[in-house]
Amino acid sequence: MTDPDGYHLETGPIRPPNEGGAGSLLIRATRNCPWDRCIFCPFYKGQRFQIREVDDIKGDIDTVMKIVDMLEDGSDMSKVPYQTLYMIKAWNRGGKRTAFLQDSNSLIIPTDQLVEVLEYLVESFPSLERITSYARSDTIARKSVHELKRIREAGLTRLHVGLESGDEEVLELVKKGVTPEQHIEGGKKAKEAGFELSEYVMPGLGGKELSKQHAYNTAKVLNQIDPDYIRMRPLTVHPLTELHGLRATDQFRMTSPHERLEELRSMVEGLEVSSTLCFDHFLNGWRGRDGGPLFKTSFSGYRLPDEKEQILELIQEGLDVPESQHLDPRRTRMNSF
Ligand code: SF4
Fold first, then answer.
1. C-alpha 37 to ligand 1 mean position (Å)
2. Do 165 and 201 contact (CB within 8 A), yes or no?
């Protein structure tokens, strides 16, 4: 991209909403997804995966510094692209506390390079309290605990992993490219290295046929990992995905809101973890008796095991509410990332 004034900053399309929201700095370390085959995922489709050069990433960090200085000096900002300025202003206003490394699997970067980027970022902005990224379980599993510790010590504090399911058949069906064993190994290693670990689970991913085993085996895998956070991201089917074709030909039958609550009940009953369980996405659109959200949607979620009974009672409440009153993911195309 032509950038005669040196204010361009490359950013990717997504980040987890709980990572500082608009107040988080996005640093693009890789482009797109090295796997790109999950049949429910519309992101990065057909886009070539690339690890960005360390110097280019550092160049972006320098650009951020330059723009922050200009903001603080009250300089003329008219040449700074609007989106870049918007992000850096919000981040600066929030105290420059959080950053997120994009895109979908930063841990695939060779360890020395990733450490160099992280150290440069932390050195440039000592106010950073949290740096986070997405990572795939199989990629984490391929690194040694020693390497992971180096990355953690360089400043990456939290990993967001798309577990989706702990069931082998579901993982194969959706072409996740990860086995339950790799999920467990990756999750355990991440914890051993000192990362805060956030695992994303997708209610509904087994469809009607595999719903029971999806619930049972997901709980089993999570019990082995005992992540810090379990985040529920119910399945929707986006038209640009392979899953859409399976659904259209009835090879994949989506579960209803009540069926998903039954699935969730079985999963929660099976959980023996000390994690925080979060419903921090609008697609957790079950309603309570009062018509409001059934589960609290805050990032702080519910503490397990202490609040397990409360969650199970809420699930029962949701089952008592007529199905038509819940948000039905079968009728929305929004994605659940
Ligand atoms: S879900 Fe994650 S790993 Fe799978 S294709 Fe999408 S970005 Fe890649």
1. 7
2. yes
C-alpha of residue 39 to centroid of ligand 1, in Å: 9
Residue among 33, 49, 133, 176 whose CB has most ligand 1 atoms within 8 A, to mutate: 33
Cα 5 to ligand 1 centroid, rounded to whole Å: 34
Q: Catalogue all structural domains in the chain, each as residue range(s) with its CATH number.
A: 1-134 (no CATH), 136-337 (3.30.750.200)
Distance separating alpha carbons of residues 334 and 337, to the nearest angstrom: 9
Mean pLDDT of the chain: 94
- The DSSP code for 287 is B
Q: For a substitution probing ligand 1, which of 30, 37, 44, 104 has the most ligand atoms within 8 Å of its CB?
A: 104
Atom 4 in ligand 1: residue holding the nearest Cα: 38
C-alpha dihedral sign at 99, 101, 107, 112: negative
Say what the alpha-carbon torsion angle 309, 315, 320, 326 is, to the nearest 10 degrees. 150
The CA 33 to ligand 1 mean position distance, Å, reads 6
Q: What is the pLDDT of residues 54-63, one digit of tens each?
A: 999 999 999 9
User: Residue 247's Cα: distance from chain center in Å?
Assistant: 24
The CA-atom distances, in angstroms, between 280 and each of 163, 167, 275, 286 are 16, 23, 15, 12
Query: pLDDT of 125-141, one tens digit each?
Result: 999 999 999 999 999 99
Residue in this structure with the two tokens 């008219």, named with its chain if needed? 78
Query: CA 278, CA 281: separation in Å to the nearest integer?
Result: 9
Q: Which residues line ligand 1 (CB under 6 A)?
A: 33, 35-38, 41, 43-44, 104, 136, 162
304: which 2 tokens?
A: 């397990």
Question: What is the separation of C-alpha 20 from the centre of its chain, rounded to a whole number of angstroms?
Answer: 13
Residue-wise pLDDT for 300-313, tens only, equals: 899 999 999 999 99
Spatial separation of the C-alpha atoms in residues 300 and 246, rounded to whole Å:
36
Measured distance CA(132)–CA(208) in Å, rounded: 34
Nearest 5°: phi and psi at 85? Answer: -65, -40
